Structure formats: structure tokens, C-alpha cells
Amino acid sequence: MAVADVYDALVSKRIYKLPMTHEEAMDIIKSESGTHFDPQIVECVVELERTFRNIAQTYSDTEPDSNKQDLLEDIHRRGYLNKILIVEDSRIVRRVMENQFLSIGIDVDVAADGQEGLTKVLTNTYDLVLLDIELPKLNGYQMVEAIKEHGELPVIIAMTATDYSVTLSQLKDMGIAGLILKPVDLERLGTKYAEIMRKKYPEKFLNGER
User: Phi and psi dihedrals of 84, rounded to 5?
Assistant: First the structure.
């Protein structure tokens, strides 16, 4: 079910992302064999990939009625969200999230571990950093502390698969602006980022200024 769910997410068109081709989705699934997925299950999927493709084409999703990315699009148009960094060790999650933001027109950079994320933050300027807590090389907490040693923190929203491992007060003490659960919902992210911008630019943001 995990493989089928990921395949469906990758090849389906959503209001927040463009669909991948069957071949692109299969390449990602194969690359995650032995890490994200059981290798024996992946072997079965490869044998049945024509069936996967046929089912996906037969039961393709219809477009949802509501557009949940409206708030993020508005924030982007007003110049408050032009470039983001996604620090996430799962290639699948990175690719899905990257497509979400590219479909809005936001410039996206990615990092696969905390050390790479640290290097990119120190050498680039980002409006927002979406930071996974559990990362190789440097975890999210270590990466934040390393950034603070070199200067001011960018706007960081932490991502986690469960809200039991961390409290919002702990994150705020570290200088992290917020917490969002994975998979990231663009409507919730837009609401959270808007709250951050209202606090950072109270008069300009509330008046709709750039």
C-alpha cells in the first residue's frame, strides 16, 4: 500500500503540483528500494508496472473544486515568498514538494541532509526554509544551531511526521518560526506563513503592500 500510495501521488495531477510521467515515478520507486520500500515489494511492482500504468490512466483523479494554494500564490505575488529551501532526506518527499512550489512560480532549492542545508543557507538568501527534523549528517536542531553561529536565522518552519517528538515552545526557543506536519498541506502552510509575515511586517503585510 505504501508503494501504491506513493505511485498515485507522483503520477496524479493536483492543484498544487504537475503530474510526473509513469517512467519518472517508477525511477523514483526503484531508487528507494531497500531504503523507503521493501526490495521484494519493489520487484513485484516492476513486474506489474504495466498494470499500475493502466489503473492510473483508467481511474485518474478529477480536478478538486477548491484551490488551496490561493493564499500562498497571493503571498508570492506580493513579493514575500520568492525563494525557498526544502531540507528533506526523502527523495520522494523532496520531489513532490518541489513540484508543489514550482507550480505556483516559487523558486525552489533542495538539500538532502543537514550539512548540505547548512551550506546552502550560508551561501544563499531564502524567504523560507522548510526543515525536516530527522536528517542525516546534521539533524534539524544541529543545523539551526550551526546557522546561528554564523549569523541571523532565516524564516524556518520545521517539518515532522509526528507532533509528539517536539513542542512548539522548544522550537521557538531555538528561533524556529513554526511547525507543520508532513505531508505538507499548502493551505495550512499558507496560513502559517501569513501569520509569520504579519508579525514580521505588521503594517506593510496587513495593508497588502510589498
Answer: -130, 160
Provide the residue range defining the domain that includes 36: 2-58
Measure the CA–CA gap between 9 and 66, rounded to whole angstroms. Answer: 18
C-alpha cell at 166: 517536539
Mean pLDDT of 90-101: 86
Report whether pLDDT(62) > 60.
no
> CA nearest 83: which of 26, 128, 142?
128
Q: Are 8 and 52 in the same domain? A: yes
Question: Is the overall model pTM greater than 0.85, yes or no?
Answer: no
Start-to-end CA distance of the chain, whole Å, equals 45
Looking at the chain, list the stretches that DSSP marks H as alpha helix, in order from N- to C-terminal side. Answer: 2-11, 22-31, 39-47, 49-58, 70-77, 91-104, 114-123, 140-150, 168-174, 186-200, 202-206
Judge if 28 and 126 occupy the same domain.
no
